[in-house]
Q: What sequence folds into this?
């Protein structure tokens, strides 16, 4: 017979899997009956407006699963509790960066670049933005001429991109680099905060989630990574 502790672990995961399956089934039916809902990957949002559940396999996905498996082994083998907090922090940060990059590479090279050079993103606005002082001074007055991401956020990230452009770091790859740096910095900053208000034990407990968190999908390649890192 299964032990009670085993059942306690199995039941929540089973219920969660059932809830996801039901929500996907009902959501896809809603999308089929009412396409104006425009979910794409019901009950979430996907790239395909009709049915975003476009499953793709690649070695990058295998690599992302490998990162998750490595962290699982570290926890179950007890390595996580024997390593120094500095080592745990470094492994967590590196794993977070690798996990996010590998998930993006599931779409190939375009998976990294889409969030950097898309016409709605920040980089596309550099050719029409005036010098920094004028840009900030007239930001609100000229708001409608910029893309949706610039209109929806303060002007700081555009100024950062203009600074990179001024020193010769042009194109989408510096934006990708900023996203990777931000993704790596977030868990380090969070762990510092947790250690300051709690202790090392609590910090160790949250490290796996920081390394393979669902928010990785929004970090590559997005200014959200930089915003999150600065806030953290």
A:
């Amino acid at each position: 017979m299964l032990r009670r502790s085993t059942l306690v672990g199995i039941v929540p995961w089973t219920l969660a899997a059932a809830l996801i399956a039901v929500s996907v089934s009902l959501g896809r039916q809603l999308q089929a009956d009412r396409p104006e809902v425009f979910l794409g990957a019901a009950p979430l949002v996907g790239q395909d407006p009709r049915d975003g559940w476009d499953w793709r396999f690649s070695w990058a996905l295998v690599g992302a699963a490998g990162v998750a498996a490595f962290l699982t082994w570290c926890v179950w083998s007890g390595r996580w509790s024997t390593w120094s907090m500095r080592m745990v922090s470094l492994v967590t940060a590196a794993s977070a960066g690798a996990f996010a990059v590998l998930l993006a590479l599931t779409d190939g090279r375009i998976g990294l670049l889409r969030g950097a050079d898309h016409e709605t993103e920040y980089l596309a606005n550099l050719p029409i933005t005036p010098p920094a002082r004028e840009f900030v001074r007239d930001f609100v007055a000229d708001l409608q001429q910029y893309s949706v991401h610039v209109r929806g956020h303060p002007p700081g990230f555009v100024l950062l991109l203009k600074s990179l452009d001024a020193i010769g770091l042009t194109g989408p790859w510096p934006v990708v680099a900023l996203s990777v740096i931000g993704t790596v910095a977030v868990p380090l900053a969070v762990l510092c905060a947790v250690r300051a208000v709690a202790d090392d034990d609590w910090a160790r407990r949250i490290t796996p989630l920081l390394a393979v968190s669902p928010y990785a999908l929004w970090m590559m390649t997005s200014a959200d990574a930089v915003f999150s890192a600065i806030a953290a």
User: Anything to note?
Assistant: The beta strands are 40-41, 44-45.
